[in-house]
Amino acid sequence: QDSPPCPDARSERRRRRMFQVCCVCDADGNGACFESMPELGDSAPIEVELRREISSESWGMVLDRTRAGPFGTLSVSRLRDSHFSPLAVHNRSAPEACRVQKHDVVTSVNGRSDVEEMMAILANESCVVLHLRRPQIFKVLVPKNGKRLGLGVSLQASASALNIESIAEGSAISASMADIRVDDRIVAVNGCAGSAEELMRELKASDEPLLTIARI
After folding, report:
1. What pTM was computed for the model?
2. Which residues of 33-46 are buried (b: 16+ CB within 10 A; e: fewer)?
3. How far is C-alpha 141 from the chain's CA centre?
4. pLDDT confidence of 164, banded at 50, 70, 90?
């Protein structure tokens, strides 16, 4: 059974939507095509269309699930080392601004923004339209000075980031006046990336942790 065609990335309707549009389907459903929309900065939405031959084929990325926002989010924790995955093909052909990168946040898949629905679509469909946002990445040094760090974070064994859910009053974070907010993601501690559990251990062990933050 033939896979359904990807939507036409060059339609006038999408021109008006002001997305940076990328597509890996040509008119015959093969190869890659793209159209870079006017530059809107790193926080601008990015739209990516991916196609695969069979639903069991990997898209070429590993996603983290978090509980941030009303529906949760999916973030790209790793790009798979595969030269021929749909995502690898897309990234080789697309303009730099339209390439999917580590830490990008998937805000919808085929128009659905609920995490469970997005995961189901990615697992079962052969053609998907992803809307992503590229986070701001920055570093913050937080001296504890004998205080507790004061971050409430979500800890998921399969994740590679810590999602900040709360910040305690009177903690090292609040005392430092650091620009850290609820729903920010900690993607590295003292320059070390790894699993959420490894990040948590580094946070606890360090008296002056340097946090790498990803923020939408």
Report:
1. 0.75
2. bbbebeeeeeeebb
3. 23
4. very high
